[in-house]
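Deliverable D4.2, example record:
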Amino acid sequence: MKKKCFITGAFAVLFSFSSTALAYEIMEIKNAGSIEGTVEFSGGNVPNDQVVEVIPKNTFCGNKLLAGRYLIKDRKIKNVVVYIEDIRAGKPIPNESVTLTNLKCAFVPHVAIGFKGNNFIERNDDPIPHNIHTYRGGMTMYNVDIAGEGKEIIKPLTKAGLIEVECDTHHWMHGYIYVTDHPYATVTNDDGEFFLKDVPPGTYTIVAWHEMFNKIKAYKVIVESGKATKLKLEYKK
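Output generated by the structure prediction step:
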């Protein structure tokens, strides 16, 4: 029988992602459990995306685009980062790069997970120039042009935390990478679902972050051997 846990959290005004000084350790997991569920909007009126003007106008991007910051279907929220806070041991960290692509004048994916020690690949698949301007904590990390179609820039992910990505040429283009020093992080899908698999049995704090709603926490989420813990996280605006 699956263990069910329903937790509602109010959104925070400020948010931060932090990592402890303790290194993550790989361990053998016997009878691992999992954490899965949905992130939902439980407030009054569901917010809608703004329509933004394309400046400078060009035939490739069109004249107007949706901002793409609220992607809510049947109150289920896409592009929410969900992770276990301060887990220090478990399954191996994936050895894979994270790619953010300029595609049709947007960053695809809009929100992604990267792993500390791996690479961040920035790619332009548009026939028009873009630039990649990255920020951590409001401070510029780097700002580089990526003008040619099919061009790539590779940068190392050296610190855990949230990276915001913008294109200075096209003001509506925003993207995010949450860089983690452990493997228990994911992004909600089109149906607001998330899945954290191969979790060692124990008690954890789950954190969810959304670019417009900020952060909520679910305390004392219990994972049992061989069982799936069900969790519903709710934002109220």
